Amino acid sequence: GPNHACMIALELEIPVMIIPKESSIFCAAGMLRSDLKHDFVSTYATVLDAADPATFKKLFGDMKAQGIELLISEGIPQNRIAHIFSLDLRYVKQYHEVNIEITSQEINRADFGSIATRFHKKHNALFGYSLEKEQTPVELINLRVMCIGQTAKPKFQIEAYDGPDPSKAHKKNRRIYLPLQKRFEAVEIFDGARLRFGNKVVGPAVIEQVNTTTFVSPEFSLLVDKFGSYTMYMKTHEETAEKRILN
Q1: At residue 83, does pLDDT exceed 50?
Q2: Which residues does 99 contact at the CB level (< 8 Å), separation at least 6?
């Protein structure tokens, strides 16, 4: 499929397009950089003040243990596992539930008072009113645990400056159709895998890769940045754009 480009504005509102070299596999790359997350939920319908502390702690403990076991089976060491605990709460006989994040200390202490206080404040922030003064009971609906396995993140590699000449990446010339000019023209074809930091490709040209193809239209030039990504800019803004990209 075609490359997905990000349009940004530099100084003097110069339009440029940032085209990551691996943009066609962004979804897969994003998955590799994401933490593993598993959500667990247990329903425990009761008035919050009447909740049994032992049951409250056991339900959270069981979900936490399930999450740890699952993440370890997926190759995450225990010292890289984190948890987020929360409750779904609402006023008795009302419809809207509010999710309140709580701490492990509040779970161990079964500190329903501090939890209810935060619920009143958040309900007021979300819906514009609180029934705290009316002493309306708070109802507990669900207990939730998000188990997070923190994965090792790959680092971006910075390339050494190679100069503007892209000739080492040149493959051949080939006739292609230029849409705006409405004609066929022989243009340079480059191997994207061999382009390096500082290499400049003047449009019209085509950059071919195993996973995508980038077309540099006649009005644009393209410069490879230190991360190997392509920055495409209008030729009329060449000096300012190149100064910003190379510094």
Answers
A1: yes
A2: 86, 87, 88, 89, 144
